[in-house]
Amino acid sequence: MAAVTAASRRLGDLLKWRLTAPTHRGLNLSLRPMGSSAPSETRGAAPSEAPDHSYESLRVTAAERHILHVELNRLEKRNAMNRAFWREMVECFKKIAQDADCRAVVISGSGKMFSAGIDLVDMASDLLQPQGEDAARISWHLRRLIASYQETFSVIEKCPKPVIAAIHGGCIGAGVDLITACDIRYCAQDAFFQVKEVDIGLAADVGTLQRLPRVIGNQSLVNELAFTARKMMADEALGSGLVSRVFPEKEVMLDAAFALAAEISSKSPVAVQGTKINLLYSRDHSVADSLNYAASWNMSMLQTEDIVKSAQAAMEKKELKNITFSNL
């Protein structure tokens, strides 16, 4: 007990030091009773359309405070990915990345399935009749086209806001490319996953072959799925690590995804977004390089007022959801 009391006293002294130390202009660190943030909207209310997000293939709504819901919205086409989709996802997530109020995103599919993958009917001319006067020019055109399609999902990964994929029904072909670019994956019991590209005569080229091995950490299983295009059902997806939780039905899964997004969005956005950026850097670099990057990152981020607010909340035994963190 004495050790706990001493530690609490040291923390209090540290907070007082931070409050009396010189601060940068505009950084207001005052030790006072913590105010509550505005109450979150409940999912019972009809979600409102997010401003500046009007698309043909997507529906974007403000699900709760600080949370956006991006819904694949081609119900009649089983959310197949047409030309508009490949363009609009980039536009959508670039806006989300710059949206200071947004702190977490949930992606789901409308209707009976997450996505049937690429819309071959709509995309056939781009893929089967590429522009160019000769083989070299046709190849350069195709390379630019493929790179633009890759950016459609890479933009999700680049977005500093955590992105939760909520999958039900089929997640086929490019649907797998999409979800492997997300940070967290939940699915319903009826979900299944197919790396479908070999069945249409091509190698997957917009993210699955690069991200899936890192997601599940089992190269043998990745090879099996990619070579055969067989279905991976929900329980196998959970066991392999592709998803972290399985729910009995879509609505239960969505409730859980929004609850998770709400918990994430209650934390310091400086801490959460910095964590995502450092996790992605560490995935692609050595431990030594990643530690150096983290040190460089935190030499500035440790100066945030969010540390004081979080420590004060802990001392006052308050939940972080009742603390107001400034938008980032």
UniProtKB/TrEMBL annotation:
CDD domains: crotonase-like. Residues 28-55 are annotated as: Disordered. This is Delta(3,5)-Delta(2,4)-dienoyl-CoA isomerase, mitochondrial. Pathway: Lipid metabolism; fatty acid beta-oxidation. The keyword Cytoplasm does not apply. Pfam families: ECH_1. Belongs to the enoyl-CoA hydratase/isomerase family. Keywords: Fatty acid metabolism, Isomerase, Lipid metabolism. Signal peptide: none annotated. GO terms for molecular function: isomerase activity. Transmembrane segments: none annotated. InterPro entries: ClpP/crotonase-like_dom_sf (IPR029045), Ech1-like (IPR045002), Enoyl-CoA_hyd/isom_CS (IPR018376), Enoyl-CoA_hydra/iso (IPR001753), Enoyl-CoA_hydra_C (IPR014748).
